[in-house]
Please model this.
Amino acid sequence: MGTLVLGSYILVWPIVSLAVLGVIVGATCRDYLCARREGRDVV
Model:
């Protein structure tokens, strides 16, 4: 039982990291497209 819990805990972290990375990349792309539409610089 302990091995199953520990294995699940270790395998969840790549999924959580991928979700966070997806949110960051999505927000960056949305900001870039919005700035491009309005004729502004991103930085």
Q: What stands out?
A: The two ends are 51 Å apart (CA to CA).
